[in-house]
Amino acid sequence: MYVNVNSFLEIFLMLSIPVSFIGISATPGARAKNSNSRQVAADKNPAVLKNEILLNRDSVNYSEVRHIVLKGTNEQIGKALGEISKEDYNVTPSKFVDPIYARARLAYMQKNYPAFYERMKGVAEAYGVSIDTIDLDLSVLPYDAGSLGCSVVYFPPSVTYNGHAMACRNLDFRTAPLDRLLGNTDVSNQTDMFARTYVMELYPEEGYSSLVIGGHDLMGFFFQGLNSQGLAIELQVDESPLVVITPLGGARASGLSDLLAARMILDTCKSVEEAKLVLLNNRIYFPFIGIHFLIYDKNGNSTIAEFLAKDDSVHFTDASDSLRVMTNHPVCLYPTTDTYPEPDARVGYYDSFLRFKTLTEFTSNHQGKFSEQDMIDALRSVYAEVYYGTLLSENEKIPERTVMNSLLDLTSGTISARFYLRDGPTDPMLGGPSNIFSQFFSFTLENISPS
């Protein structure tokens, strides 16, 4: 997705679809291992079942991938998240400008999202502070905060080779530190954006289990996930006007960030309709830039949820038993191709509307049921192989690449994902440097509901 370099708000977040790859070796349901995998440390917290590096970041590999599995009470899970954030990511919680905002956030969570309030109590314990007397925002523990873009296609059971509800997506990101986008050349000690990815499984004693892929904050900043009830959600940047814009941590707004709203949906909802109620009955605010949601279930139901400033409301675009495409423009404002504006010549094929058309045409012209390879081929047609300038200079070129390509099987409760390693030869399809990926790693949520 094109990001206007004259606006910081438009470069912070952006989500996109596939890229070229090294072999499809993953089998859904199998836990992939890697010769470089290593257990990070002997965790003292009994809630930590796994805290393991599957892919190491080094001079030739862009991505680090960490696999975290936690099981216990929500407070135990929160303490584990706090400990890992503190010890492995060197995170310091953000401060509110006044303790009243901290108290308001705690009161809101305690009333509306008690499971997450318990996790915040655990974070407080991990950081050695009292949750009742602090001015810290323990709802978010950000690291390597940066900018992203994306594409996704949902395939209902009726169109897939195995009769499963599936989705394939790309996560596109600027492969540079955030400060470089801001024009600061002194970034020698900073980690590139989305270079430290995590795959997390949560098995709380209260609430639904979930499997997510995310980055930048272990508490709730994920981009793709599913829960044990057969409900899944995809988060992507939305170019529509926002209702409220806030910082990532320490925001004055009381309520849920769009990112925590997604986490609440996986923790508490078992249907698309229940997910809609979460978005309608909570005050949602947006750190830096807007997000829209593709929410879908294993029975073929789906909705795209979008927030518009003009009427301060949530717009739902529903479907049943239909293949769904989502890129980075609001579908409620541009429902058909004849409503699309002229493509942005500066970004060519990567324009959000062109990516949407490409994916729609690819899937519409497909004959027969979709195999896993068909899904991956569809997203390959919109890999990010482009360059952008900084906020201070259009001439300085920063690469944007597809940093993750994943295949989600909602019926089986699995996600298979591969991660960007480095640039390869010129891609004959798109014309930019091809994205060299890792092998596929496969992850399975253990207690997916059969109903």
Structural features:
451 residues; alpha+beta; Penicillin V Acylase, Chain A; 10-stranded mixed beta sheet; 9-stranded mixed beta sheet; 8 helices; 20% helix; globular
Fold blueprint:
Blueprint: E1 15-16, E2 38-39, E3 48-55, E4 64-72, H1 74-88, E5 94-95, H2 99-112, H3 114-126, E6 136-137, E7 148-155, E8 166-174, H4 178-181, E9 196-204, E10 210-215, E11 222-227, E12 231-237, E13 245-246, E14 256-257, H5 258-268, H6 272-281, E15 284-287, E16 291-297, E17 301-308, E18 313-320, E19 324-326, H7 352-364, H8 372-380, E20 385-388, E21 398-409, E22 414-426, E23 433-437, E24 441-444
Parallel strand pairs: 1-7, 4-9, 13-15, 14-15
Antiparallel strand pairs: 2-3, 3-4, 5-6, 7-8, 7-19, 8-21, 9-10, 10-11, 11-12, 12-16, 16-17, 17-18, 20-21, 21-22, 22-23, 22-24
Concise synopsis of the structure shown:
20% of the residues lie in helices and 31% in strands. By secondary structure, the protein is of the alpha+beta class.
Report on this structure:
This protein is of the alpha+beta class and 451 residues long. It has a single domain (8-444), classed as Penicillin V Acylase, Chain A, CATH 3.60.60. The protein contains eight helices and 24 strands. The protein has helices spanning 74-88, 99-112, 114-126, 178-181, 258-268, 272-281, 352-364, 372-380, and strands at residues 15-16, 38-39, 48-55, 64-72, 94-95, 136-137, 148-155, 166-174, 196-204, 210-215, 222-227, 231-237, 245-246, 256-257, 284-287, 291-297, 301-308, 313-320, 324-326, 385-388, 398-409, 414-426, 433-437, 441-444. Strands 2-3-4-9-10-11-12-16-17-18 form a ten-stranded mixed beta sheet, with helices on one face. Strands 1, 7, 8, 19, 20, 21, 22, 23 and 24 form a nine-stranded mixed beta sheet that branches. Strands 13-15-14 form a three-stranded parallel beta sheet. A hairpin with an 8-residue loop joins β2 (38-39) and β3 (48-55). It is globular and about 60 Å long. The chain starts with 14 loop residues before the first strand and ends in a 7-residue tail after the last strand. The model is unreliable at 1-36 (pLDDT under 50).
